[in-house]
Amino acid sequence: MKIDNLRTESYRDRIRAIATVTWEDRDRPSQDIYFETTNEFASDIWCNPNAFLAACVIPAMRYGERRITLDAPICPALKDGLTNIMHCLVHWHKGDRRVIPIEAPLASDTDYVMAKPRAGCFFSGGIDSLAMVRNNRFNFAPEHSRSIKDGIFVYGILNGEDEEEPSFQYVLDAVSSIANDAEINLIPIYTNAYAHIRDLDPDFLFWKLEFQGSFLAAVAHSLSRRLTTVSMASTYDLAHLAPWGSHPLIDHHFSSSNLHIRHEDAALSRLAKTKLVAQWDVALRHLRVCNEKDSYREGNYNCGKCEKCVRTMTALLGLGLLEEVTTFKEKDVSKKLLIKTAHFNDTFGESSYRELIPLLAQIKRYDLVDGINIILNRYHEKDLKGVIKRIDRIFLKGRLFNLSKKLIYSVRKEIELGVAKRKLERVV
After folding, report:
1. Residue 369: which residues within 8 A CB-CB, separation 6 or more?
2. In this structure, are 100 and 234 located in the same domain?
3. Are 383 and 409 part of one and the same domain?
4. In terms of domains, do 387 and 409 share one?
5. Is residue 133 situated within a structural domain?
6. Both 251 and 339 in a single domain?
7. Can you give the pLDDT of all 428 residues of the chain as single tens digits?
8. Which top-rank group of organisms is this from (predicted)?
9. Cα 201 to Cα 346: distance, rounded to the nearest angstrom
């Protein structure tokens, strides 16, 4: 993959940093990817080669490019970090992944304008990012270099997201209200870097398992003239870590000599984060957890039906706060809905539900306690089957699976023959 033709252009009332990406080993046309912001922040965004490298290196590796190359100088610290990240992803995801070389001239520290220390974060309006900002306010005085001053709000992550829709403007207004209350500047970033990858593979798993940290780091590097530290909110807590696209083991490796990337609050469980947000009235009034784009088109802020919505609603119900959260139209959770929506495949998902049981028991919602126990039993049954399949695949070369198929086929045949025999006897 080749990245070249870095340039800056004005676009409507915005400034856009652009690079051309050419696939060398895949039969695909060249594409321009960009990061842009409003004129208010025009002096802060720039054609940073590190940004485009961070955006492209993981997709290039995944789709079998033999290398990634730039003519512009890149930070040697970032190059070293990205190599470490690729090794980690190869280890996590096996398959045909391989580490690809990064070919580019190396910059020195003097090649960059060093900004005055300033901290920012990614700010979506969800539980993770709100808890991160709340925790930051509790721990750092306003004059401290780690005190968050800017929140980056990224358009283009949700599939089909359209900034022209009135419903999406409602999302921006709500997130802006929280940012104003937290006394942080909200920096809108418009990009097709994620859509550029979604063109190749619409599978959301790639974003979750491999690409999200790389993508967010790329956005951060495009603002490195303004920011020296950018924080990403954790998803998993330390007790339940699993391979993920944003992870405490890899996120700091996206740093460069003049921009430090931080992975925040991995010590906090999902419920601990929810309790932090529960202390923040403005955040509760504008809480956004839903990834279902269609809910915005229908005039809702959170759909109230997906797994994330129902899990969050259940936690808020247990805390006695669901009635106060205006962004959820539903003010109760049924056992049937909870069981229907709760699907997960790791210990983090299990813990996120298990830690709700004491809260629900305390308010005598034993129906939901029973529902969570059903969910947990379902998970453990599924997990046991998965363990058996992995052992069979690794140590028995699939012989157990093939034997079970033969047994099932034999039993089915016996049943069919028995049915046919009984029908024949009735005819005779």
Report:
1. 357, 360, 361
2. yes
3. no
4. no
5. yes
6. no
7. 999 999 999 978 899 999 999 999 998 899 999 999 999 999 999 999 999 999 999 999 998 999 999 999 999 999 999 999 999 999 998 877 899 999 999 998 766 677 799 999 999 999 999 999 999 999 999 999 999 999 999 986 654 455 555 566 778 888 999 999 999 999 999 998 876 665 545 567 888 899 999 999 999 999 999 999 999 999 999 999 999 999 999 999 999 999 999 999 999 999 999 999 999 999 999 998 987 766 554 556 788 999 999 999 999 999 999 998 988 999 999 999 999 999 888 899 999 999 999 999 999 999 999 999 999 999 988 755 555 655 655 566 666 656 665 666 566 666 766 666 666 666 65
8. Bacteria
9. 24
Verify that 65 and 197 share a domain, yes or no: yes
Residues 388 and 400 reside in one and the same domain = no
Predicted TM-score of the model (pTM) = 0.85
Q: 247 and 321 share a domain?
A: no
Question: What total number of domains does the chain contain?
Answer: 3
Residue 320, domain extent: 301-392
Measured distance CA(233)–CA(370) in Å, rounded: 32
Residue that the structure tokens 């340039």 belong to = 7
